[in-house]
C-alpha cells in the first residue's frame, strides 16, 4: 500500500504516525484502540475525521454485538462503544438501531427476528 512508501523519518512525526496507527488498528479490528484515541489527536485538523471514524467504529461494534448476542446490558454496551453516559448510548440506539429494544437496563437485539 501507499503507507509502505512513507519513510521511517516521516513515521516519527506524530501527525503522520497517528493515521498510520489508525489504519493498522482498523485492519486488526482493534476498535477499542481507535475509540480510546479519538479525543487524543496530534492536531485539531483531525477532529472532523475522528468524529466520522468514531461513528463508523461504533456501527461496526453494534453490528458485531447484535450478531453475537441476544441481549447485552446497557452498561456493557456503553463501555464497548465508549460512550460517556448511558444517555449517549440510548440516543445512538434511537437514531441508528431502530430494531433494538431497551428494557430494564438491557438491550434486546432484533427481538422480532429471534
Brief descriptors of the model:
3 strands, three-stranded antiparallel β-sheet, 114 residues, 6 helices, mainly alpha
Task: Summarize this entry quickly.
With 114 residues, this protein is mostly helical.
Give the helices and strands, then pairings.
Blueprint lengths: L7 H4 L2 H15 L2 H7 L9 H22 L2 E3 H8 L4 H11 L4 E3 L2 E3 L6
Antiparallel strand pairs: 1-3, 2-3
Helix pairs in contact: 5-6
Task: Describe, in plain words, how this protein is organized in 3D.
By secondary structure, the chain is mainly alpha-helical. Helices cover about 60% and strands about 10% of the residues. It is built from 6 helices and 3 strands; from the N terminus they run ααααβααββ. Strands 1-3-2 form a 3-stranded antiparallel sheet. The longest helix has 22 residues, at about 45-70.
Number of helical segments with 4 or more residues: 6
Secondary-structure element series: HHHHEHHEE
Task: Outline the low-pLDDT stretches.
Answer: none
Give the rounded overall mean pLDDT: 90
Q: Which sequence of strands runs across the widest sheet?
A: 1-3-2
Report the β-strand fraction as a percent range: 5-15%
Beta strands, count: 3
How far apart lie the N and C ends?
Answer: 42 Å
The level of helicity is: 55-70%
Oligomer: single chain
- Give the radius of gyration: 17 Å
Shape: elongated
Largest sheet: 3 strands, antiparallel
Structural class: mainly alpha
